[in-house]
Amino acid sequence: VEGALQETRAEVGVVLALGAIDTPRLLTLSGIGDPEDLKRLGIPTKVAAPGVGRNFQDHPLLRAVNARAKRPLGPMRDNGGGSMVNWRSAPTVALPDAHVFPVQGRSAVPRLLEAYDLTGDLFALGVGLMRSQSVGHVRVLEGKPLGALEIQPNFLAEPADLEALVRALQQAMDMLETRAFADWFDGFAAPRRRLNHAEAVAFVRESCSTFFHCAGTAKMGTDEMSVCDLRLNVRGVDGLSIADASAIPVLPSCNTHAPVTMLAERAADFLTGAA
Predict the structure, then answer these.
(1) Who contacts 118 (Cβ-Cβ below 8 Å, separation ≥6)?
(2) Does residue 191 have a cis peptide bond before it, meaning omega lies within 30 degrees of 0?
(3) Between the CA of residue 42 and those of 21, 23, 29, 37, what are the distances in Å?
(4) Could you give the percent of the chain with pLDDT greater than 90?
(5) Mind listing the pLDDT tens digit for each residue in 6-57?
(6) Are 202 and 166 in contact (CB under 8 A)?
(7) Contact 244, 260 (CB under 8 A)
(8) Of 225, 197, 182, 185, which is closest to residue 48 (Cα–Cα)?
(9) Nearest partner of 124 among 90, 169, 167, judged by Cα
(10) Contact 100/118 with Cβ under 8 angstroms?
(11) What's the chain's Rg over C-alpha atoms?
């Protein structure tokens, strides 16, 4: 019955797979978390786990570099994109950190929709940073199911992240002016023109959004901030393990579907005794 308390008992174990937002929420509501956070919420501490909700990581995404199209692009196919490019934003960067993908139509956060004319035939390039260093947190604000959360990714907190995205933004604009886009590109829409460094910093800040690659809030590891061990068992709790992106300690430089699938398959091996 909706709204009624339901009780379910597990005889073997419980696997949390609620993702990087709701796994730390449920752990906290269950009394597994930072004792100070639990005290603030009026929840008795069952297991002191200060890492719950910490180490929140996500790839920042600029939405987006919008361009005017010389002709209509037609009905959107699939997800409107599909291809991608990864490259090093600077020669001094050891591995690819910048990422761009096309969008069949406009792509903009609300701030850009207010500031720019994005009507008519448009296409866009979404620009992401896949080796971001900024780290944030997920904090439970209310000690009840589905209560309020504070989700703070701390995007651009590290100066290196901001500078890498400025370079990637300028490189994406370079890309639009190449021969490869000559049949489609009919000028910039957002931003309206090439930008100097200060203008590019401002555009990065106003267009920065989430890539929905949330991870890390119940990380595996061996230090005191690790919530689960290297076999994904929650430390200090018998029969409880985690099989989602919250257990990833360092965000991979890619979309998270494949890494989470790998992690879940590994968790299944641990649970069945295959590993």
Answers:
(1) 66, 106, 108, 112, 189, 190
(2) yes
(3) 21, 19, 10, 9
(4) 89
(5) 889 998 899 999 999 999 999 999 999 999 999 999 999 999 999 999 999 9
(6) no
(7) yes
(8) 225
(9) 169
(10) no
(11) 22
Between CA 24 and CA 18 the distance in angstroms is 9
Name the nearest CA neighbour of 188 among 173, 205, 175.
Answer: 173
Question: How far apart are alpha carbons 32 and 239 in whole angstroms?
Answer: 14
Average pLDDT, the chain: 96
Burial call 117-135: b when 16+ CB within 10 Å, e when fewer: ebeebbbbbbbbbbbbebb
Q: Which two tokens stand for residue 197?
A: 């460094």
Look at phi and psi of residue 112 and say left if phi exceeds 0, alpha if psi is from -120 to 50, else beta. alpha
The four Cα atoms 236, 237, 241, 244 give a dihedral, to 10 degrees, of -60
Give me the residue label for tokens 């339901």: 6
Give the type of residue at 215. Answer: A
Question: Could you tell me which of 14, 3, 4 has the C-alpha nearest to residue 233?
Answer: 14
